[in-house]
């Protein structure tokens, strides 16, 4: 195991080393996977909104913020920009008129239907470095860390 420059207790060195490796791997894989989004003139957050609505159907801004791990202020800006491009539209929720549902426009559906398969293929390519067992182990470890 490659050690950090930190000279603390072994448990801390081990934890810091694993954390640094996790973050470096995350940044490297994310950069390689998301590179193609620039071709579609999409940010990662915009892609996240389009993908969530594409697969789950209309969602409120609060639901979208939770799904893509963004603040309510940030999600408003993301949706504003998608709406300006004609990719989504806000519709009043019939059950609670205080809420708006975010829906894809036909142009938004076409774009995400084109971009998503390439995105999935990039993820498959990156994760292809791991065996089936390693993928399952990685998934379980990430879930364990995420649920703390």
Category from helices, strands and their pairing: mainly alpha
Order of helices and strands: HHEHHEEHH
CATH topology name, in short, is Arc Repressor Mutant, subunit A
Shape: elongated
Question: Can you describe this structure?
Answer:
- The structure is a single chain.
- The protein has 148 residues and is mainly alpha-helical.
- It has one domain: Winged helix-like DNA-binding domain superfamily/Winged helix DNA-binding domain (Arc Repressor Mutant, subunit A), CATH 1.10.10.
- The protein has helices at 10-34, 44-56, 61-67, 72-84, 106-127, 132-146, and strands spanning 59-60, 88-92, 100-104.
- Helix 1 crosses helix 5 (106-127) and helix 2 crosses helix 5.
- The longest helix is centred in the first third of the chain and has 25 residues, at 10-34.
- The protein is elongated, with a radius of gyration of 19 Å.
Question: What distinguishing features does this structure have?
Answer:
single chain; 148 residues; mainly alpha; Arc Repressor Mutant, subunit A; three-stranded antiparallel β-sheet; 64% helix; 8% strand; elongated
Short summary:
This protein is mainly alpha-helical.
Map the helices and strands.
Blueprint: H1 10-34, H2 44-56, E1 59-60, H3 61-67, H4 72-84, E2 88-92, E3 100-104, H5 106-127, H6 132-146
Antiparallel strand pairs: 1-3, 2-3
Helix pairs in contact: 1-5, 2-5, 3-4
């Amino acid at each position: 195991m490659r050690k950090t420059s930190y000279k603390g207790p072994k448990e801390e060195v081990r934890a810091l080393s694993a954390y640094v490796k996790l973050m470096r791997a995350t940044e490297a894989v994310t950069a390689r996977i998301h590179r193609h989004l620039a071709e579609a003139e999409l940010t990662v957050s915009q892609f996240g909104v389009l993908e969530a609505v594409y697969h789950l159907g209309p969602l409120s801004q609060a639901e979208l913020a939770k799904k893509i791990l963004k603040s309510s202020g940030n999600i408003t800006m993301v949706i504003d920009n998608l709406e300006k491009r004609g990719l989504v539209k806000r519709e009043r929720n019939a059950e609670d008129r205080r809420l708006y549902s975010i829906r894809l426009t036909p142009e938004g559906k076409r774009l995400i239907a084109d971009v998503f398969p390439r995105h999935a293929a990039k993820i498959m390519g990156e994760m292809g470095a791991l065996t089936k067992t390693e993928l399952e182990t990685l998934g379980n470890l990430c879930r364990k860390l995420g649920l703390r």
